[in-house]
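Good day; I would like, with your permission, to put a structural problem before you. I would ask you to consider whether the tokens describe a fold that such a sequence might reasonably adopt. The full record is reproduced below for your convenience:
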Amino acid sequence: MLLVRAWRYRDVIAQLDFVPVISGAQNDKPHLAEWTSGYDQVVDDFKKKKLPMPGVAAEQASPVAMLIVNAMLLTGFDAPREQVLYLDRAIREADLLQAIARVNRTAPGKNVGYVVDYYGVAHHLAQALEAYADDDIDGALTSLNDEVPRLAAAHAALRQLFAGISAFTTVAAQDACVEALADERLRARFEAALKAFTRSMEIVLPSEKALPYVADAKAFGTIALLARRRYRDHTLFDVRIYGEKVRALIDAHVRSLGINQRIPPISITSADYAEKVSGLTSPRAKASEMEHAIRHHISEHLDSDPAHYQRLSEHLEQILVELKDQWEQLALALADFLPVVTAGRTETTDGLEPTIEAPFHDLLAQQLADHGRPVTAERAGPLRAATIDIVHLVRTDVRLVGFWDNAHRREQLRRAIIQRLDDTRLEDGSDLFDYAWLRPIADRLVELAKHNHHRLAASP
């Protein structure tokens, strides 16, 4: 079984070197010279370079995977990347503690160090630790057998999050879990439980004691990936929560399913988005995918046109409320709503440019409404004129090279906007905006301009 699992890594294993490091003596035989002189470079490569794995640059790689020593490098040897120490001779007291400490340093991708005790030196550990306080030595060395019950408990806790599901390896079960993870609180609990499970799994692998949990590790890793994509929640289920062994296990599994972890969730503007949705297994899954894809699209574009995308958001919520739990009808309604969302703003407002002037107009109109002055026939004309002038001011300035990095220029634009708004009068001579509102409104308009820079700079 071990050979079968190692087969996929045969090309990498063939490149690895197992190098003896021997202290030289005056009467050494010639064939020992390569191991007794010049070994500093070998040791340095072991400490600093990576193994020749896929993705590792040639200048950063070294085939030195294991150093074989007798009494050398057991004390004072600092190699944080060293993870496994194999002991096959008697070693006691301070030398034993020093040897164990070689694999107890932290390094990226390393959560634990392993001591493989072929000789039985762990029996001498208690004697070696007698000189230390209990608090200092607590957990200094833990048997792999002690981790197995923790793995079983973490596995059970993870499974219990999804009531009614007993087998997680089927597509239907995984889809059901992804749908359940629409609940943000459950997603947070799932992430914490998955992290505990995979951390324990990382420690026990590649021992055969981990084999009963391999299938579920693959399944839950897939569920996490699918949920991350479905809910566009990049704060959760980061692959960095997995150790290297568990990550490789999950990576290989999702690749076998035709899933690429590095491809982001497909956008609703993608040409094959409809095909992806049609491939989902149930109306509920389709509705969930479209709902969260629409939410993500709205959130990505909200800053470029707050009023328009806020209206889309409110319409989405209305659809969800009206068709709650009616999955087939909801999927159909969201499919009809998708083209409206992806089209962006198409309607004109009082003859203004839809994608350039209209967002500024609607932001100003919303500010007036928020202050108890909705746009009436009397206010519409002055508001339209102010919008056109402000967009002209903005267009002129944002085309300047380095404008957004120039605080003085940005402040000049704010002042020009404030002045233009302050000059806006109704027919009776009254102000359209109170002066006290103008600084916050100008700040919003400058921020809106920043999010529309590409349009403003490109427009005539």
In short: DSSP finds 21 helices and four strands in the chain. The mean pLDDT is 83.
